[in-house]
Every structure is written in C-alpha cells, then in structure tokens.
Amino acid sequence: MLAVTAMWSMAGLVTRQLEHARSFEVTFWRSGFTLVALVLILLAWQGRQVFQKMPWRSPYFWLSGVCWSVMFTAFMVALTLTAVANVLITLALGPLITALMARLTTGHPLPWRTWGAIGLAGMGIGWMFASQIQVDSPGFVLGVAVAVCVPLAGAVQWTLVQRSHLRGLNLDLVPSVLLGAAISTVFTLPWAYPFQASTSDIQWMALLGVFQLAIPCVLSVLCAQVLKAAEVSLLALLEVLFGIGLAWYGAGEVPSREVLMGGTIVIAALLMNELLSWRQRHV
Q: Do 210 and 34 meet the contact criterion of CB atoms below 8 Å apart?
C-alpha cells in the first residue's frame, strides 16, 4: 500500500508538465491508457478467459466500476482547476468518510487505535489545509467541490470490497478497475474534443495511465482484501505528503512550514496505527 500511494502521488507533478492538454482531455487520455494497460495486465494474469469470468451480474462489480470512474475523472479535473496541495488535502477526508461508512454498513466496530489515528491525522490535515487553501484563487471552489467527489467514491469503493468478502461472495473486483477506466474514457470523450494535447502531453499521460493508475489501482484492490477499509484509506493519506513533496521538488510549488508540520503529524498518526496493530498481532 505504501508503494501504491507513492505511484498515485506522481499525478500532480506530471500534470504540471503538460503543455496544451487541459481538464477533461487529460482525464480522457489518462483513462484511455489505463484501459489499454489493464486489458494487457488482466490477459497476462488470468488469460483470455478473464472477460468471461467477470462478474457481469454482480451489483458490486458495477458499483465498484462507477466508483473508480468517478475517482479517475474527478481527480484529474480538480488538478486542472486548483493547486495540487488544495486537491490532495481535500482527498485526506477519505479516512473519516471511509471509517464512518464502513461502520454503518458492516456494523463492525473499529479499534480505538484506528479512530485515534484518524483523529490525529485529521488534526494534521486541518493544519495543512488552513495554511494552504487559496479561497481567492481562480477555480478554488469548483476545484475543491470536484475533488471531494474522490474521497466519497473511494469510501464507497473500499467498503464495497470489504462487504463483498464479508458476505463470502469471493468476487474478483480487480476487473472493476478496468470497468471504471472504460466508463471514464467514454464519459470524457465528448468533453475532451477538440483535442489539443501535444506529443509530449500524450507521452506524459501514457505514463500516468500505466504507472499512476493501472498498476497501483490493481494493487490497491488486492490490499483492500487484506487490510481493513479504514486502514487502506488511512495509509492512502501518504499520497498527500508524497504528492506535495513531488510538486515542491519538480514543479516549484513550495509548501509552507505549516504544511510540513501538519505532514509530520499525519506520518506520526500512520506510524502509531501500524505499530499498535503489529503489537496487538504479536502479543
């Protein structure tokens, strides 16, 4: 899951390298390359029968696909509307939304260490948010409104994965990532036209499609079969730190001291949760 968040975090940096592609066109190309990459990955992993084995009649499969498409689309559109830090910090609402949704739908109480980690990480994120939001900047309100769709869809996605396993359905929801990429590609095509992307833009978006979406999203679904939904979402907070760091290093978007302080609190919360979890398993 740590590797997954590191790969996810490159989106902000790569987006700042684009020359002409904007908004829905960025999402279209990235989702399209993700779709192609996932077809190749699934064929190599499960053979030609993979499409016949897909759970076409399962509502979990279709709901999961819709969630992935919302995340794919909203994230890239938001990045083109407002600063990387504003988008990534908004994504940090994910753990709280996921924890509450998982608690309501599965009925399983979360351990106190996870609630404590969510609270501590929320304090760190709040500190970062207060110093970074640029209310007067163009596109801020719309950018954050679009960005908040990502943690909402993510919370539903992680809860769906866990709920299907709790019911003993043993569904393979990895193909739902493929379905999400297909929905996103088809939905954004009309909005992407006329295409303005340069050859360099298309190369950057191919990089995102394969290494920032296809590979890490498949891995994240596998992680969600082992980790609790709230833990997956909590670990995903590292994308905020990695993403801001990459935007700082590669695109010159310098974070404030408050961002660095808040990031330290988030890391401490993650370490606390994982160390306490490890201790409970080995006592």
A: yes
CB contact at 8 A, 181 and 35 = yes
How many helices and strands, by DSSP H and E, does the chain display?
Answer: 16, 0
Residues of the chain with pLDDT under 50: none
Whole-number pLDDT of residue 139: 66
Our CA angle for 10, 15, 20, nearest 5°, is 155
d(CA 193, CA 196): 8
Burial of 260 (0-12, 13-18, 19+ CB in 10 A): middle
Question: CB of 230 within 8 A of CB of 105?
Answer: no
pLDDT at residue 205, as a whole number: 93
98: which residues sit within 8 A by CB, 6+ positions away?
Answer: 151, 154, 155, 158, 159, 229, 230, 232, 233
What is the pLDDT, as a whole number, of residue 127? Answer: 78
